[in-house]
Amino acid sequence: MIVRAGAKFCSTRCRVASARRTKKRDALPTEMASERRFVRYTAKKVPRMVDGGWAKSNDSATWASLQEARASDVGEGVGFMLGGGFGCIDLDHSISDGVVADWARAVLDANPGTYVEVSRSGEGLHIFGLLPESGGRVIRDGRNIEVYSRERYIALTGARFEDAPNKLAPLIVPSM
Prior knowledge:
Layout: H1 12-26, H2 30-33, E1 38-41, E2 47-48, H3 66-71, E3 77-81, E4 86-91, E5 95-96, E6 99-100, H4 102-110, E7 116-118, E8 125-130, E9 137-140, E10 144-148, E11 153-155
Antiparallel strand pairs: 1-2, 1-3, 3-11, 4-8, 4-10, 5-6, 7-8, 9-10
């Protein structure tokens, strides 16, 4: 029960608990957060500039800082442009009924010590890390894996997976 008019929380304890949850959810690794590689995206995951124009994965002039992207109300959320040493292993359809598939767990185990978040669908994982630029790779052999390290962006959720660290490490890409 809120006692004061205009109060957001019922008590100091609730306010502190909310701040801790928000900090865990919204905290991106410093290596990412300090870069101007952020965009907004639409419901159909089309990248947009913070002012509403079209963002381009190969034009850094269309990207923004994390603060600018979060402050913008364009589209549905914030995305991160890959490249410049930043890569992502996207594990699609890797979580079912809260359980991580064995093939996805093997990829996670090969990449300890790096930031991982749950995708927008709640059924996938994004493993962010350091990866030299190269062409993308798609593996569909019972596993649903995509690996990107340039001219792509990933829609961020900030929903850190399990106890994933808040830092980036070199990525180990799964073999075909």
